[in-house]
Each structure stands twice: as C-alpha cells, then as structure tokens.
Design brief:
Length: 353
C-alpha cells in the first residue's frame, strides 16, 4: 500500500491518456442501476449454469441413440460414420462449455458490480486525447479530421473528453456523460510529471530543418536533465517490460525443447506433420520478439542511467508565409529513441499502465 501511495505522490494518474480530475460518490440512481444489474447477473448466471449439464445430457443421449441406429452391433463403423459421430460429440461438449463460460461471465459481472457497490466511488478523468496539439485545435483544417468512438460512444478528438471509472473495479462507467453499455475495465496509469524547466528549455530550441525530402535534421535539438521521478519511471518500465513476454517465451521454448528430445528418442525416421513446422515457426517468432523487448529494456535502462532527454522542435507547416500548423515539441530518449513527451504530454507508449 505504501509503495502504491509513493508512486501516486510522484506521478500523474491518467486513464487512456486523460489526467485524473476528481473522485465522487455514486448517486442513488446509479446505486439502483447497479443493484438491479447484480440481481440480473445472478439470475442469468444460474440459468446458464443449470442449462449446461441439461443440454449436454440431451445431446449425449441423441449421440447414443443415433449411434445405435447408424452402428448396429453386428456391423463395423465406416471411417465416415466415425468422423460424423466424433463431430457430434465435439459439438455437444463445445456447446455445453459455451453455456458454462456464459455462466462464468455473468458471475464475474455480479462480482464486479458488488465490489463497486461496496466501494462506491467514481474517478473522473478529463482532457484532450493524447497527441492532440491544443495550439492548433481551432484551425478549420485540423477540425475537419474524423471523430472516433470510445466504448461505442461517439466523441470529437478536438473537444475535452470526460471518462468516469469505478475506483475499485476500474470499470468504465460513462464517456462524456453517456453510459457505456458493455462492461469494459480500463487500466490506471501513472506517468512522471514533466519538470518546469522542460518548458523553459524547449523555448530555446530552434525548429529542426527538413533536408532531403522528409528527413529532419535534429542537429538543432537541445537537451535537458531528467527529473528523479522521470528516471524512476524509465527504470520501472525497463524492469517490467520483459517479464510477461519472457514467461511466455520460456514456457513455449521449454515445450519445444521437450518435443525435440522426444523426437530424438523416436529416431531420425519419425515423420513430422506440417503443423509441427508452423508451431516451431510461431515459437521462434515469440523468441525473436522477446529478444527485441529485452534489447529495448536494456536501452531504456541506459536512458535512465544517462539521465538526459533530447528536445526537438519540428518545423512549422507553412503555406507561403502563413503558418498552418505549429511544429510539435518532441522529447525523446537518446538510447532507445522512444518519444518521451509530445507537446508536454506523455508519449502513447507510456500510457499502457
């Protein structure tokens, strides 16, 4: 608990890139909606759960009856008949499994709703979508770009977005005042604050020049020192980035190694099916991706040790002497080459938890 409070005190809490604004208790109307949803989920879970064995028994009975008709005890079953009955068996088992999964999903919804009723607070996040240049936001050529959707709710990319999320379950409740129909849980993100001197340092950076078409000359870029909080965030991300893909790579490679040993024991004359080669290619792709993530994590560790960030001001988009769009100020890490901030806002890869 203390570690979590320490992270929150030295970083900015966001959700889908939008900063945290306030926390409020749910209203009585919202509490009534949740209570009704909990009751409905419990009923639906019971119905799906009770139907699963009932459907399975009926289908298996049909399977036995059809089998006795098609396969008299005096006759041998043909390959086609065996395949047909095997499909019926798989279908019946799969359908029963679907019923059980539906029952489990409804039960999960009930648990989430009950958790939200116990700790009935909603967190509000508000701001512009990540990457939106607020200096150019009112220009017609910018606002002509299409709108998007968040959880099925239409939003404009060039107007403030408001999200309301339950603090306990992280369930997305409302988008711009419109209730979300589906149950979607969103992550809580923490990014280090950009220090005040970053804005001062950016003002002294000359706009980059475009050379050879679209190539940008970054020789005019500036530098600033990372704050302790920023360096700690980079170290934390470098340490956790490889853990999940590393576990997947370890397990898949171990399985491949076990199969290779088994193949060696069977001898060189054992035939391999084509699906085995696809599986081997998939595992090699997982391992290569893991090596890439490990390399990126090592580069991030070097960025944290170096303790600096490069500041590049992109050239303005011009139409003769008229400035159509002001160039963005991008801070990027020198070793990993990852963007760190864009116009003072965290880069998108930092908004993944």
């Amino acid at each position: 608990m203390a570690a979590s409070e320490s992270i929150q005190s030295t970083s900015r809490e966001t959700c889908l890139g939008l900063p945290f604004v306030e926390e409020r208790p749910i209203s009585e109307e919202e509490r009534t909606i949740l209570q009704k949803e909990a009751q409905q989920s419990l009923g639906q879970s019971c119905i799906w759960g009770c139907l699963a064995p009932f459907v399975y028994i009926i289908l298996i009975t049909i399977f036995i009856v059809v089998g006795n008709i098609i396969f008299p005890t005096t006759n041998d079953a043909s390959t086609f008949q065996v395949i047909a009955l095997a499909i019926i068996m798989v279908f019946s088992t799969g359908l029963a499994a679907v019923f059980l999964l539906k029952a489990n999903d409804k039960n999960k919804i009930r648990k989430i709703v009950r958790k939200d009723l116990r700790k009935s607070n909603l967190k509000c996040y508000q701001g512009f979508a990540p990457g939106i240049d607020q200096e150019n936001i009112h220009k017609p050529e910018v606002q002509s770009e299409p709108s998007v959707q968040i959880a099925g709710v239409d939003i404009s990319m060039f107007e403030p977005i408001t999200l309301e999320v339950f603090s306990s379950s992280r369930r997305l409740w409302q988008v711009n005042g419109t209730r979300v129909k589906e149950l979607i849980c969103v992550p809580e993100e923490h990014t280090a604050f950009q220090p005040e001197q970053a804005q001062i340092a950016a003002k002294w950076v000359e706009p980059a020049r475009i050379i050879e078409g679209r190539t940008i000359d970054v020789s005019q870029s500036g530098r600033r020192n990372l704050s302790k909080q920023e360096a700690d965030e980079i170290r934390r991300r470098a340490h956790i980035a490889w853990r999940k893909p590393g576990l997947i790579a370890l397990l898949s490679t171990a399985y491949l190694g076990a199969q290779a040993i088994r193949q060696w024991q069977l001898g060189p004359h054992a035939n391999l099916q084509w699906s085995v080669y696809i599986f081997i290619a998939l595992i090699l792709w997982i391992d290569i991706r893991f090596v890439k993530i490990v390399w990126e994590s090592w580069q991030l560790s070097k960025d944290a040790t170096d303790g600096t960030v490069v500041i590049t001001r992109l050239p303005d988009e011009m139409n003769g002497d008229e400035v159509l769009r002001t160039g963005a100020v991008i801070e990027w890490l020198p070793y990993s080459n990852f963007n760190w901030t864009i116009n003072g806002e965290p880069a998108r890869w930092r908004l993944r938890g």
